[in-house]
Amino acid sequence: MKLEDIARELGLTELTPKVTGNSEADIERGYASDLLSDVLAHAPAGGVLVTLQVHLNVIAVASHAELAAVIFAGDRRPDDEVCGKANAEGVSLFVSPADTFDVVGRLYALGVKGNHA
Amino acid sequence: MEHLTYDIRSGDFGGAGAASRDLKQHLKRIGAESDAVRRAMITAYEAEMNVVIHTEGGRLEATVSDGQLDVDVVDRGPGIPDVPQAMREGFSTASSEARALGFGAGMGLPNIERNSDRLRVTSAVGDGTRVSFSIILRPEAADQGARPSSLGIAAELCRDCRHCLAACPTAAVRVREAQPSVLYHLCVDCTCCIAACDPGALTLLDAPDGLVPGADGVLAVPPALLAGFGDHAVDTVLEELRGLGFAEVVSVHPYEDELRRGVLDLAATSALPTPVISSVCPAVVSLIELKFPSLVPHLAPLASPWEALQRDLGERDVTYVVSCPSQRTALLAQQPTAQRRTVTPRLVREAVLPRLAARRRAAAGTPAPQPQAAGADDLLVVTGVSHVLAVLEQIEDGRLTGVASVEPFICDGGCFGSPLLGEDAYVAAWRWAAAAGAASGEGRSYERARPYRPRPGIRLDPDMAVAIRKLAELDAETKALPGRDCGVCGAPTCAALAEDIVMGRAVRALCPYVTPEEGSAS
Fold first, then answer.
1. Distance separating alpha carbons of residues B294 and B284, to the nearest angstrom
2. Does B24 touch chain A (CB under 8 A)?
3. What is the residue range of B488's domain?
4. A with B: how many residue pairs have Cβ under 8 Å apart?
5. What is the number of structural domains in chain B?
6. Do B38 and A66 make contact, defined as CB atoms within 8 angstroms?
7. For the whole prediction, is pTM greater than 0.95?
8. pLDDT tens-digit profile of B128-153?
Protein backbone atom coordinates (compact mmCIF):
# COMPACT_ATOMS: atom_id res chain seq x y z
CA MET A 1 0.00 0.00 0.00
CA LYS A 2 1.22 3.50 -0.81
CA LEU A 3 2.50 5.59 2.05
CA GLU A 4 0.16 8.48 1.23
CA ASP A 5 -2.81 6.10 1.33
CA ILE A 6 -1.70 4.74 4.68
CA ALA A 7 -1.38 8.29 6.03
CA ARG A 8 -4.90 9.08 4.85
CA GLU A 9 -6.48 5.85 6.13
CA LEU A 10 -4.90 6.20 9.55
CA GLY A 11 -5.44 9.95 9.84
CA LEU A 12 -1.74 10.61 10.36
CA THR A 13 -0.19 14.05 10.62
CA GLU A 14 2.82 14.40 8.35
CA LEU A 15 5.83 16.17 9.85
CA THR A 16 8.12 16.05 6.84
CA PRO A 17 6.20 17.40 3.83
CA LYS A 18 9.57 18.22 2.21
CA VAL A 19 10.40 14.53 1.91
CA THR A 20 8.98 13.60 -1.45
CA GLY A 21 9.50 10.36 -3.28
CA ASN A 22 8.32 8.28 -0.35
CA SER A 23 4.62 9.04 -0.70
CA GLU A 24 4.40 6.79 -3.75
CA ALA A 25 6.48 4.09 -2.08
CA ASP A 26 4.78 0.76 -1.65
CA ILE A 27 4.86 -0.21 2.03
CA GLU A 28 4.63 -3.94 2.54
CA ARG A 29 6.32 -4.49 5.87
CA GLY A 30 6.42 -2.83 9.24
CA TYR A 31 8.04 -3.04 12.65
CA ALA A 32 7.14 -1.76 16.10
CA SER A 33 9.73 -1.30 18.82
CA ASP A 34 11.18 1.28 21.17
CA LEU A 35 14.55 -0.43 21.46
CA LEU A 36 16.70 1.04 18.75
CA SER A 37 19.12 -1.86 18.55
CA ASP A 38 16.14 -4.09 18.05
CA VAL A 39 14.90 -1.81 15.26
CA LEU A 40 18.33 -1.83 13.69
CA ALA A 41 18.51 -5.61 13.82
CA HIS A 42 15.03 -6.49 12.65
CA ALA A 43 13.19 -3.65 10.91
CA PRO A 44 12.58 -4.49 7.24
CA ALA A 45 14.24 -2.23 4.66
CA GLY A 46 11.70 -0.08 2.84
CA GLY A 47 9.20 -0.59 5.67
CA VAL A 48 7.55 1.54 8.30
CA LEU A 49 8.47 1.80 12.00
CA VAL A 50 5.98 2.48 14.79
CA THR A 51 7.71 3.80 17.91
CA LEU A 52 7.43 6.02 20.96
CA GLN A 53 11.01 7.26 20.69
CA VAL A 54 11.13 10.79 19.28
CA HIS A 55 14.79 11.74 19.64
CA LEU A 56 17.47 12.28 17.03
CA ASN A 57 18.88 8.76 17.10
CA VAL A 58 15.63 7.39 15.72
CA ILE A 59 16.38 9.14 12.46
CA ALA A 60 19.90 7.69 12.33
CA VAL A 61 18.52 4.23 12.99
CA ALA A 62 15.70 4.65 10.46
CA SER A 63 18.18 5.82 7.86
CA HIS A 64 20.59 2.98 8.58
CA ALA A 65 17.82 0.41 8.46
CA GLU A 66 16.66 2.04 5.19
CA LEU A 67 13.12 2.57 6.48
CA ALA A 68 10.72 4.61 4.37
CA ALA A 69 8.79 6.10 7.26
CA VAL A 70 8.42 6.38 11.02
CA ILE A 71 5.08 6.75 12.79
CA PHE A 72 5.25 8.21 16.30
CA ALA A 73 2.44 6.73 18.35
CA GLY A 74 0.63 8.20 21.36
CA ASP A 75 0.72 11.72 19.93
CA ARG A 76 4.41 12.05 20.75
CA ARG A 77 6.08 14.73 18.65
CA PRO A 78 9.78 15.13 17.89
CA ASP A 79 11.36 18.58 17.95
CA ASP A 80 12.27 20.61 14.87
CA GLU A 81 15.87 19.41 14.84
CA VAL A 82 14.66 15.82 14.48
CA CYS A 83 12.28 16.77 11.65
CA GLY A 84 15.06 18.68 9.91
CA LYS A 85 17.33 15.65 10.13
CA ALA A 86 14.58 13.42 8.74
CA ASN A 87 14.13 15.85 5.85
CA ALA A 88 17.84 15.64 5.13
CA GLU A 89 17.89 11.83 5.34
CA GLY A 90 14.74 11.32 3.28
CA VAL A 91 12.80 9.60 6.05
CA SER A 92 9.09 10.48 6.26
CA LEU A 93 7.77 11.18 9.77
CA PHE A 94 4.15 10.96 10.92
CA VAL A 95 2.31 11.38 14.22
CA SER A 96 -0.73 9.41 15.32
CA PRO A 97 -2.88 10.13 18.35
CA ALA A 98 -3.52 6.38 18.67
CA ASP A 99 -1.24 4.19 20.79
CA THR A 100 1.23 1.71 19.30
CA PHE A 101 -1.13 -1.26 19.53
CA ASP A 102 -3.88 0.49 17.60
CA VAL A 103 -1.56 1.94 14.97
CA VAL A 104 -0.06 -1.47 14.28
CA GLY A 105 -3.49 -3.10 14.22
CA ARG A 106 -4.74 -0.64 11.60
CA LEU A 107 -1.58 -1.04 9.51
CA TYR A 108 -2.03 -4.79 9.61
CA ALA A 109 -5.63 -4.49 8.53
CA LEU A 110 -4.42 -2.47 5.53
CA GLY A 111 -2.12 -5.30 4.52
CA VAL A 112 1.17 -4.10 6.02
CA LYS A 113 2.70 -7.22 7.56
CA GLY A 114 5.60 -8.06 9.82
CA ASN A 115 8.75 -9.97 8.93
CA HIS A 116 7.21 -13.39 9.24
CA ALA A 117 3.76 -13.08 7.77
CA MET B 1 42.63 0.37 -0.35
CA GLU B 2 40.71 2.97 1.59
CA HIS B 3 41.30 3.95 5.17
CA LEU B 4 38.83 6.05 7.19
CA THR B 5 39.14 7.32 10.77
CA TYR B 6 36.41 8.82 12.97
CA ASP B 7 36.56 10.19 16.51
CA ILE B 8 33.64 9.31 18.74
CA ARG B 9 32.85 11.40 21.80
CA SER B 10 31.51 10.01 25.04
CA GLY B 11 27.84 10.79 25.69
CA ASP B 12 27.38 12.45 22.31
CA PHE B 13 23.98 10.95 21.53
CA GLY B 14 23.20 13.65 18.99
CA GLY B 15 26.36 13.19 16.96
CA ALA B 16 26.23 9.41 17.07
CA GLY B 17 25.70 7.83 13.67
CA ALA B 18 27.91 10.29 11.79
CA ALA B 19 30.75 7.79 11.36
CA SER B 20 28.51 4.95 10.22
CA ARG B 21 26.65 7.28 7.84
CA ASP B 22 29.86 8.46 6.23
CA LEU B 23 31.08 4.89 5.98
CA LYS B 24 27.85 3.95 4.23
CA GLN B 25 28.43 6.58 1.55
CA HIS B 26 31.90 5.22 0.93
CA LEU B 27 30.71 1.65 0.64
CA LYS B 28 27.95 2.59 -1.76
CA ARG B 29 30.43 4.47 -3.88
CA ILE B 30 32.71 1.48 -4.24
CA GLY B 31 29.78 -0.68 -5.30
CA ALA B 32 29.36 -2.93 -2.27
CA GLU B 33 26.27 -5.13 -2.32
CA SER B 34 23.31 -3.48 -0.62
CA ASP B 35 22.95 -6.26 1.93
CA ALA B 36 26.60 -5.85 2.86
CA VAL B 37 26.16 -2.08 3.15
CA ARG B 38 23.22 -2.62 5.47
CA ARG B 39 25.15 -5.04 7.65
CA ALA B 40 28.12 -2.67 7.72
CA MET B 41 25.81 0.14 8.84
CA ILE B 42 24.21 -1.85 11.62
CA THR B 43 27.52 -3.06 12.98
CA ALA B 44 29.28 0.29 12.72
CA TYR B 45 26.35 2.12 14.31
CA GLU B 46 26.14 -0.32 17.21
CA ALA B 47 29.88 -0.05 17.75
CA GLU B 48 29.63 3.73 17.64
CA MET B 49 26.75 3.76 20.14
CA ASN B 50 28.71 1.49 22.47
CA VAL B 51 31.49 4.05 22.60
CA VAL B 52 28.99 6.90 23.17
CA ILE B 53 27.07 5.07 25.89
CA HIS B 54 29.69 3.18 27.82
CA THR B 55 33.09 4.76 27.41
CA GLU B 56 35.29 7.80 27.81
CA GLY B 57 35.31 8.16 24.05
CA GLY B 58 37.26 6.45 21.29
CA ARG B 59 37.92 6.06 17.64
CA LEU B 60 36.52 4.02 14.76
CA GLU B 61 38.86 3.02 11.96
CA ALA B 62 37.62 1.38 8.80
CA THR B 63 39.68 -0.20 6.04
CA VAL B 64 38.30 -1.37 2.74
CA SER B 65 40.40 -3.67 0.58
CA ASP B 66 39.94 -6.77 -1.55
CA GLY B 67 36.18 -6.71 -1.23
CA GLN B 68 36.29 -6.73 2.54
CA LEU B 69 35.55 -4.15 5.20
CA ASP B 70 37.59 -4.28 8.40
CA VAL B 71 36.46 -2.10 11.28
CA ASP B 72 38.46 -1.48 14.41
CA VAL B 73 36.81 0.40 17.28
CA VAL B 74 39.07 1.29 20.18
CA ASP B 75 37.92 3.19 23.27
CA ARG B 76 39.66 4.74 26.26
CA GLY B 77 37.95 2.71 28.94
CA PRO B 78 36.64 1.69 31.36
CA GLY B 79 36.88 -1.79 29.79
CA ILE B 80 34.65 -4.84 30.09
CA PRO B 81 35.34 -7.15 33.06
CA ASP B 82 33.54 -10.15 31.55
CA VAL B 83 33.48 -10.17 27.75
CA PRO B 84 31.42 -13.40 27.28
CA GLN B 85 28.79 -11.92 29.57
CA ALA B 86 28.71 -8.71 27.53
CA MET B 87 28.22 -10.76 24.38
CA ARG B 88 25.03 -12.29 25.77
CA GLU B 89 21.83 -10.78 24.49
CA GLY B 90 20.02 -8.79 27.16
CA PHE B 91 23.04 -8.03 29.33
CA SER B 92 23.69 -4.32 29.69
CA THR B 93 25.31 -1.83 32.03
CA ALA B 94 23.93 1.23 30.24
CA SER B 95 22.92 4.40 32.07
CA SER B 96 19.30 5.34 32.53
CA GLU B 97 19.85 8.16 30.04
CA ALA B 98 20.88 5.67 27.36
CA ARG B 99 18.02 3.37 28.25
CA ALA B 100 15.50 6.20 28.01
CA LEU B 101 16.65 6.73 24.44
CA GLY B 102 15.99 3.13 23.56
CA PHE B 103 19.57 1.91 23.84
CA GLY B 104 21.23 -0.26 26.44
CA ALA B 105 18.96 -3.24 25.93
CA GLY B 106 21.96 -5.53 25.76
CA MET B 107 21.67 -6.04 22.02
CA GLY B 108 24.66 -4.11 20.75
CA LEU B 109 27.44 -6.67 20.66
CA PRO B 110 25.09 -9.54 19.76
CA ASN B 111 23.82 -7.37 16.90
CA ILE B 112 27.37 -6.82 15.68
CA GLU B 113 28.08 -10.52 15.92
CA ARG B 114 24.99 -11.43 13.95
CA ASN B 115 25.69 -8.96 11.16
CA SER B 116 29.43 -9.36 10.71
CA ASP B 117 31.42 -12.16 9.15
CA ARG B 118 34.03 -12.10 11.91
CA LEU B 119 34.07 -10.44 15.32
CA ARG B 120 36.72 -10.14 17.99
CA VAL B 121 36.32 -8.33 21.29
CA THR B 122 39.28 -7.79 23.60
CA SER B 123 39.18 -5.69 26.72
CA ALA B 124 41.32 -4.68 29.69
CA VAL B 125 39.58 -3.14 32.69
CA GLY B 126 40.85 0.37 33.27
CA ASP B 127 42.41 0.47 29.84
CA GLY B 128 39.72 0.11 27.23
CA THR B 129 38.08 -2.19 24.75
CA ARG B 130 38.85 -3.08 21.17
CA VAL B 131 36.01 -4.35 18.97
CA SER B 132 37.18 -5.58 15.55
CA PHE B 133 34.92 -7.00 12.92
CA SER B 134 34.92 -7.70 9.19
CA ILE B 135 32.27 -7.80 6.54
CA ILE B 136 32.64 -9.38 3.11
CA LEU B 137 31.35 -6.72 0.75
CA ARG B 138 31.02 -8.73 -2.44
CA PRO B 139 30.96 -12.41 -1.57
CA GLU B 140 30.68 -13.52 -5.18
CA ALA B 141 33.27 -11.18 -6.64
CA ALA B 142 35.67 -11.52 -3.74
CA ASP B 143 35.85 -15.20 -4.50
CA GLN B 144 37.74 -16.42 -7.51
CA GLY B 145 34.68 -18.50 -8.38
CA ALA B 146 33.11 -15.58 -10.21
CA ARG B 147 34.14 -15.19 -13.83
CA PRO B 148 33.37 -12.58 -16.37
CA SER B 149 30.48 -13.92 -18.40
CA SER B 150 29.40 -13.32 -21.97
CA LEU B 151 25.83 -14.38 -21.40
CA GLY B 152 23.46 -11.51 -22.14
CA ILE B 153 20.02 -11.10 -20.59
CA ALA B 154 17.16 -9.32 -22.35
CA ALA B 155 14.64 -9.59 -19.52
CA GLU B 156 11.85 -7.88 -21.48
CA LEU B 157 11.76 -10.83 -23.91
CA CYS B 158 11.25 -13.42 -21.15
CA ARG B 159 7.84 -15.08 -21.26
CA ASP B 160 8.37 -17.01 -18.04
CA CYS B 161 8.35 -20.49 -19.62
CA ARG B 162 11.31 -21.48 -17.41
CA HIS B 163 12.75 -23.98 -19.89
CA CYS B 164 16.15 -22.47 -19.09
CA LEU B 165 15.96 -23.64 -15.47
CA ALA B 166 16.09 -27.31 -16.38
CA ALA B 167 18.51 -26.73 -19.25
CA CYS B 168 21.35 -25.27 -17.19
CA PRO B 169 23.87 -27.98 -16.25
CA THR B 170 25.00 -26.10 -13.13
CA ALA B 171 21.64 -24.83 -11.79
CA ALA B 172 22.83 -21.25 -12.30
CA VAL B 173 19.64 -19.76 -13.74
CA ARG B 174 16.71 -18.32 -11.78
CA VAL B 175 13.50 -16.86 -13.14
CA ARG B 176 11.59 -14.71 -10.70
CA GLU B 177 8.80 -12.29 -11.64
CA ALA B 178 9.39 -13.10 -15.31
CA GLN B 179 12.99 -11.88 -15.02
CA PRO B 180 15.76 -14.34 -15.76
CA SER B 181 18.93 -13.90 -13.75
CA VAL B 182 22.16 -15.84 -13.58
CA LEU B 183 24.28 -16.76 -10.57
CA TYR B 184 27.55 -15.95 -12.26
CA HIS B 185 29.62 -17.92 -9.76
CA LEU B 186 27.93 -21.03 -11.14
CA CYS B 187 27.75 -20.05 -14.82
CA VAL B 188 30.13 -21.86 -17.19
CA ASP B 189 29.31 -19.69 -20.19
CA CYS B 190 27.83 -22.52 -22.24
CA THR B 191 24.86 -22.37 -24.60
CA CYS B 192 22.38 -24.61 -22.77
CA CYS B 193 20.06 -21.84 -21.52
CA ILE B 194 20.40 -20.00 -24.83
CA ALA B 195 19.32 -23.13 -26.70
CA ALA B 196 16.34 -23.52 -24.37
CA CYS B 197 15.25 -19.88 -24.65
CA ASP B 198 12.96 -19.50 -27.66
CA PRO B 199 12.18 -15.79 -27.25
CA GLY B 200 15.87 -14.95 -26.98
CA ALA B 201 15.85 -13.46 -23.49
CA LEU B 202 19.09 -15.33 -22.80
CA THR B 203 21.66 -14.76 -25.48
CA LEU B 204 25.25 -13.96 -26.36
CA LEU B 205 26.48 -10.42 -25.77
CA ASP B 206 27.11 -8.55 -28.99
CA ALA B 207 29.59 -5.85 -29.97
CA PRO B 208 28.19 -2.46 -28.97
CA ASP B 209 28.61 -0.96 -32.45
CA GLY B 210 27.52 -3.97 -34.47
CA LEU B 211 29.46 -5.38 -37.40
CA VAL B 212 32.01 -2.73 -38.30
CA PRO B 213 35.22 -3.78 -40.05
CA GLY B 214 38.35 -2.69 -38.20
CA ALA B 215 41.28 -0.89 -39.80
CA ASP B 216 42.93 -4.16 -40.85
CA GLY B 217 39.70 -5.64 -42.23
CA VAL B 218 40.27 -9.05 -40.65
CA LEU B 219 37.33 -11.31 -39.84
CA ALA B 220 37.82 -14.50 -37.81
CA VAL B 221 35.02 -17.02 -38.16
CA PRO B 222 34.03 -20.54 -37.12
CA PRO B 223 33.81 -22.98 -40.05
CA ALA B 224 30.15 -23.56 -39.22
CA LEU B 225 29.41 -19.96 -40.19
CA LEU B 226 30.99 -20.36 -43.61
CA ALA B 227 29.04 -23.57 -44.20
CA GLY B 228 25.84 -22.25 -42.72
CA PHE B 229 24.20 -20.52 -45.68
CA GLY B 230 22.22 -23.33 -47.23
CA ASP B 231 23.54 -24.41 -50.62
CA HIS B 232 25.63 -21.30 -51.09
CA ALA B 233 29.19 -22.51 -51.54
CA VAL B 234 31.80 -21.59 -48.94
CA ASP B 235 33.70 -19.70 -51.67
CA THR B 236 30.65 -17.55 -52.36
CA VAL B 237 30.19 -16.81 -48.66
CA LEU B 238 33.86 -15.83 -48.39
CA GLU B 239 33.48 -13.52 -51.34
CA GLU B 240 30.45 -11.79 -49.81
CA LEU B 241 32.24 -11.39 -46.50
CA ARG B 242 35.03 -9.64 -48.38
CA GLY B 243 32.36 -7.49 -49.97
CA LEU B 244 31.37 -6.32 -46.48
CA GLY B 245 34.82 -4.81 -46.02
CA PHE B 246 36.68 -7.76 -44.60
CA ALA B 247 39.68 -8.16 -46.89
CA GLU B 248 40.91 -11.17 -44.97
CA VAL B 249 38.70 -13.91 -43.55
CA VAL B 250 40.36 -16.51 -41.36
CA SER B 251 38.68 -19.64 -40.12
CA VAL B 252 39.43 -21.14 -36.73
CA HIS B 253 39.31 -24.71 -38.03
CA PRO B 254 43.06 -25.18 -38.70
CA TYR B 255 43.58 -24.33 -35.04
CA GLU B 256 41.03 -26.95 -34.05
CA ASP B 257 42.98 -29.49 -36.11
CA GLU B 258 46.27 -28.41 -34.55
CA LEU B 259 44.84 -28.62 -31.05
CA ARG B 260 43.57 -32.15 -31.79
CA ARG B 261 47.06 -33.14 -32.95
CA GLY B 262 48.54 -31.55 -29.84
CA VAL B 263 46.13 -33.42 -27.56
CA LEU B 264 46.79 -36.77 -29.25
CA ASP B 265 50.48 -36.07 -28.96
CA LEU B 266 50.17 -35.38 -25.24
CA ALA B 267 48.11 -38.53 -24.81
CA ALA B 268 50.83 -40.58 -26.49
CA THR B 269 53.89 -39.04 -24.92
CA SER B 270 53.15 -37.06 -21.79
CA ALA B 271 52.67 -38.15 -18.21
CA LEU B 272 49.17 -36.67 -18.06
CA PRO B 273 46.55 -39.04 -16.64
CA THR B 274 44.46 -40.66 -19.36
CA PRO B 275 42.24 -39.95 -21.00
CA VAL B 276 43.67 -36.56 -21.79
CA ILE B 277 40.78 -34.14 -22.12
CA SER B 278 40.96 -31.60 -24.92
CA SER B 279 40.60 -27.92 -24.09
CA VAL B 280 38.74 -27.31 -27.36
CA CYS B 281 35.56 -26.13 -25.64
CA PRO B 282 36.11 -23.42 -22.98
CA ALA B 283 32.64 -24.12 -21.56
CA VAL B 284 33.60 -27.73 -20.84
CA VAL B 285 36.87 -26.53 -19.29
CA SER B 286 34.81 -24.24 -17.02
CA LEU B 287 32.43 -27.08 -16.23
CA ILE B 288 35.34 -29.32 -15.22
CA GLU B 289 36.86 -26.61 -13.04
CA LEU B 290 33.50 -26.13 -11.34
CA LYS B 291 31.96 -29.60 -11.15
CA PHE B 292 34.79 -32.07 -11.75
CA PRO B 293 37.84 -30.56 -10.02
CA SER B 294 39.37 -34.03 -9.77
CA LEU B 295 39.59 -34.11 -13.57
CA VAL B 296 41.57 -30.87 -13.86
CA PRO B 297 44.86 -32.83 -14.22
CA HIS B 298 43.37 -34.59 -17.26
CA LEU B 299 42.96 -31.31 -19.15
CA ALA B 300 45.50 -30.77 -21.93
CA PRO B 301 47.44 -27.62 -20.97
CA LEU B 302 46.85 -26.11 -24.40
CA ALA B 303 45.09 -22.96 -25.48
CA SER B 304 41.66 -23.33 -27.07
CA PRO B 305 41.55 -22.88 -30.87
CA TRP B 306 40.19 -19.33 -30.57
CA GLU B 307 42.84 -18.34 -28.04
CA ALA B 308 45.57 -19.75 -30.31
CA LEU B 309 44.16 -17.95 -33.35
CA GLN B 310 43.99 -14.70 -31.41
CA ARG B 311 47.63 -15.03 -30.41
CA ASP B 312 48.67 -15.50 -34.02
CA LEU B 313 46.69 -12.45 -35.10
CA GLY B 314 48.58 -10.43 -32.51
CA GLU B 315 47.82 -6.75 -32.37
CA ARG B 316 45.82 -6.63 -35.60
CA ASP B 317 42.33 -5.15 -35.47
CA VAL B 318 40.25 -8.33 -35.81
CA THR B 319 36.50 -8.86 -35.77
CA TYR B 320 35.67 -12.18 -34.13
CA VAL B 321 32.48 -14.07 -34.89
CA VAL B 322 32.06 -16.45 -31.97
CA SER B 323 29.46 -19.16 -31.66
CA CYS B 324 29.12 -19.22 -27.87
CA PRO B 325 29.64 -17.14 -24.72
CA SER B 326 32.62 -19.21 -23.58
CA GLN B 327 34.60 -18.39 -26.73
CA ARG B 328 33.90 -14.68 -26.28
CA THR B 329 34.94 -14.81 -22.62
CA ALA B 330 38.16 -16.61 -23.56
CA LEU B 331 39.00 -13.99 -26.18
CA LEU B 332 38.28 -11.10 -23.82
CA ALA B 333 40.40 -12.66 -21.09
CA GLN B 334 43.40 -12.58 -23.42
CA GLN B 335 42.62 -9.19 -24.93
CA PRO B 336 39.98 -7.01 -23.23
CA THR B 337 39.75 -4.67 -26.24
CA ALA B 338 38.31 -7.55 -28.30
CA GLN B 339 35.01 -6.68 -26.65
CA ARG B 340 34.46 -3.94 -29.25
CA ARG B 341 34.71 -6.38 -32.11
CA THR B 342 33.31 -9.69 -30.90
CA VAL B 343 30.03 -10.28 -32.67
CA THR B 344 27.32 -12.91 -32.84
CA PRO B 345 26.82 -15.05 -35.95
CA ARG B 346 23.36 -13.48 -36.25
CA LEU B 347 24.87 -10.08 -37.07
CA VAL B 348 26.98 -11.57 -39.84
CA ARG B 349 24.11 -13.60 -41.23
CA GLU B 350 21.90 -10.53 -41.35
CA ALA B 351 24.58 -8.69 -43.32
CA VAL B 352 25.40 -11.55 -45.70
CA LEU B 353 21.97 -13.04 -46.43
CA PRO B 354 20.62 -10.12 -48.51
CA ARG B 355 23.82 -10.13 -50.58
CA LEU B 356 23.52 -13.86 -51.19
CA ALA B 357 19.86 -13.52 -52.09
CA ALA B 358 20.81 -10.94 -54.70
CA ARG B 359 23.11 -13.42 -56.40
CA ARG B 360 22.12 -16.31 -58.52
CA ARG B 361 21.93 -19.28 -56.28
CA ALA B 362 24.99 -21.41 -56.59
CA ALA B 363 24.66 -25.10 -57.31
CA ALA B 364 25.10 -27.42 -54.38
CA GLY B 365 28.60 -28.78 -54.09
CA THR B 366 29.29 -32.47 -54.37
CA PRO B 367 30.07 -33.98 -50.99
CA ALA B 368 33.69 -34.99 -50.73
CA PRO B 369 34.74 -37.84 -48.47
CA GLN B 370 35.52 -36.52 -45.00
CA PRO B 371 39.25 -36.57 -44.32
CA GLN B 372 40.16 -39.08 -41.66
CA ALA B 373 41.67 -37.35 -38.66
CA ALA B 374 45.05 -38.66 -37.62
CA GLY B 375 44.75 -41.41 -35.05
CA ALA B 376 40.99 -41.05 -34.82
CA ASP B 377 40.78 -44.32 -32.90
CA ASP B 378 42.58 -42.76 -29.97
CA LEU B 379 40.14 -39.90 -29.85
CA LEU B 380 36.66 -39.99 -28.38
CA VAL B 381 34.59 -37.03 -29.56
CA VAL B 382 31.66 -36.26 -27.25
CA THR B 383 29.12 -33.55 -27.97
CA GLY B 384 26.07 -32.30 -26.10
CA VAL B 385 25.90 -31.41 -22.43
CA SER B 386 24.23 -34.62 -21.22
CA HIS B 387 26.78 -36.82 -23.00
CA VAL B 388 29.65 -34.65 -21.79
CA LEU B 389 28.41 -34.91 -18.19
CA ALA B 390 28.02 -38.69 -18.51
CA VAL B 391 31.51 -39.18 -19.95
CA LEU B 392 33.14 -36.85 -17.40
CA GLU B 393 31.47 -38.88 -14.66
CA GLN B 394 32.83 -42.10 -16.19
CA ILE B 395 36.33 -40.64 -16.24
CA GLU B 396 35.95 -39.43 -12.67
CA ASP B 397 34.88 -42.90 -11.55
CA GLY B 398 37.74 -44.51 -13.48
CA ARG B 399 35.31 -46.41 -15.69
CA LEU B 400 36.49 -45.05 -19.04
CA THR B 401 39.44 -47.19 -20.04
CA GLY B 402 41.27 -47.70 -23.31
CA VAL B 403 40.60 -44.14 -24.46
CA ALA B 404 43.70 -42.01 -24.98
CA SER B 405 41.97 -38.67 -25.34
CA VAL B 406 38.56 -37.09 -25.21
CA GLU B 407 37.36 -34.10 -27.21
CA PRO B 408 34.28 -32.77 -25.46
CA PHE B 409 31.95 -30.07 -26.80
CA ILE B 410 29.13 -28.70 -24.72
CA CYS B 411 27.00 -27.98 -27.79
CA ASP B 412 25.18 -30.86 -29.41
CA GLY B 413 27.12 -31.55 -32.63
CA GLY B 414 30.21 -29.63 -31.51
CA CYS B 415 30.74 -25.99 -32.39
CA PHE B 416 28.65 -26.58 -35.51
CA GLY B 417 25.74 -27.15 -33.14
CA SER B 418 25.77 -23.82 -31.34
CA PRO B 419 22.21 -22.49 -31.07
CA LEU B 420 23.60 -19.12 -32.10
CA LEU B 421 24.36 -20.33 -35.61
CA GLY B 422 21.58 -20.40 -38.14
CA GLU B 423 22.10 -23.83 -39.67
CA ASP B 424 21.50 -27.27 -38.23
CA ALA B 425 24.72 -28.84 -36.95
CA TYR B 426 24.60 -31.90 -39.20
CA VAL B 427 23.74 -30.00 -42.35
CA ALA B 428 26.47 -27.40 -41.77
CA ALA B 429 29.06 -30.08 -40.95
CA TRP B 430 28.15 -32.02 -44.08
CA ARG B 431 28.47 -28.94 -46.24
CA TRP B 432 31.75 -28.04 -44.58
CA ALA B 433 33.18 -31.46 -45.29
CA ALA B 434 31.93 -31.23 -48.87
CA ALA B 435 33.75 -27.95 -49.31
CA ALA B 436 36.98 -29.27 -47.79
CA GLY B 437 39.86 -26.96 -48.54
CA ALA B 438 37.64 -24.02 -49.52
CA ALA B 439 38.93 -21.91 -46.66
CA SER B 440 42.49 -22.95 -46.15
CA GLY B 441 44.93 -21.64 -43.61
CA GLU B 442 47.59 -22.63 -41.18
CA GLY B 443 46.93 -23.41 -37.58
CA ARG B 444 49.09 -23.70 -34.55
CA SER B 445 48.72 -24.85 -30.99
CA TYR B 446 49.97 -23.00 -27.96
CA GLU B 447 50.42 -23.68 -24.30
CA ARG B 448 47.77 -22.14 -22.16
CA ALA B 449 48.32 -18.70 -20.69
CA ARG B 450 46.11 -19.22 -17.64
CA PRO B 451 46.58 -22.37 -15.57
CA TYR B 452 43.51 -24.46 -14.88
CA ARG B 453 42.11 -23.85 -11.46
CA PRO B 454 39.41 -25.75 -9.58
CA ARG B 455 36.62 -23.39 -8.78
CA PRO B 456 34.43 -23.63 -5.69
CA GLY B 457 30.75 -23.75 -6.59
CA ILE B 458 28.54 -23.57 -3.55
CA ARG B 459 30.03 -21.25 -1.01
CA LEU B 460 27.81 -20.97 2.00
CA ASP B 461 30.18 -18.72 3.89
CA PRO B 462 33.87 -17.82 3.95
CA ASP B 463 33.91 -18.65 7.66
CA MET B 464 34.01 -22.43 8.11
CA ALA B 465 32.01 -22.36 11.35
CA VAL B 466 29.24 -20.30 9.77
CA ALA B 467 29.36 -22.46 6.66
CA ILE B 468 28.84 -25.58 8.74
CA ARG B 469 25.89 -23.97 10.50
CA LYS B 470 24.45 -22.97 7.15
CA LEU B 471 24.95 -26.50 5.88
CA ALA B 472 22.67 -27.71 8.66
CA GLU B 473 20.14 -25.03 7.70
CA LEU B 474 20.43 -26.14 4.09
CA ASP B 475 19.67 -29.68 5.13
CA ALA B 476 16.61 -28.59 7.10
CA GLU B 477 15.36 -26.38 4.25
CA THR B 478 15.78 -29.19 1.72
CA LYS B 479 13.75 -31.51 3.93
CA ALA B 480 11.00 -28.91 4.29
CA LEU B 481 10.57 -28.66 0.51
CA PRO B 482 8.52 -31.23 -1.42
CA GLY B 483 11.30 -32.49 -3.73
CA ARG B 484 9.20 -32.11 -6.88
CA ASP B 485 11.71 -29.86 -8.64
CA CYS B 486 8.78 -28.16 -10.38
CA GLY B 487 10.49 -24.80 -10.96
CA VAL B 488 7.48 -22.69 -9.93
CA CYS B 489 9.61 -20.88 -7.33
CA GLY B 490 12.00 -19.81 -10.06
CA ALA B 491 14.82 -22.15 -9.06
CA PRO B 492 15.52 -25.29 -11.07
CA THR B 493 15.32 -27.72 -8.17
CA CYS B 494 14.18 -27.87 -4.55
CA ALA B 495 17.84 -28.16 -3.56
CA ALA B 496 18.63 -24.96 -5.47
CA LEU B 497 15.75 -23.14 -3.73
CA ALA B 498 16.99 -24.39 -0.35
CA GLU B 499 20.39 -22.91 -1.16
CA ASP B 500 18.77 -19.64 -2.29
CA ILE B 501 16.88 -19.47 1.03
CA VAL B 502 19.95 -20.12 3.18
CA MET B 503 21.94 -17.57 1.17
CA GLY B 504 19.15 -15.00 1.51
CA ARG B 505 18.30 -14.95 -2.20
CA ALA B 506 14.77 -16.26 -1.75
CA VAL B 507 12.14 -17.15 0.85
CA ARG B 508 10.46 -20.47 1.48
CA ALA B 509 7.05 -18.96 0.71
CA LEU B 510 8.00 -18.98 -3.01
CA CYS B 511 7.28 -22.71 -2.95
CA PRO B 512 3.64 -23.36 -3.91
CA TYR B 513 3.56 -26.63 -2.00
CA VAL B 514 4.59 -25.25 1.37
CA THR B 515 1.56 -24.24 3.44
CA PRO B 516 1.51 -20.62 4.64
CA GLU B 517 2.20 -21.67 8.26
CA GLU B 518 5.28 -23.62 7.21
CA GLY B 519 6.31 -20.84 4.84
CA SER B 520 6.33 -18.31 7.64
CA ALA B 521 8.26 -20.50 10.02
CA SER B 522 11.63 -19.64 8.56
1. 14
2. yes
3. 464-520
4. 68
5. 3
6. yes
7. no
8. 999 988 888 765 444 444 567 889 99
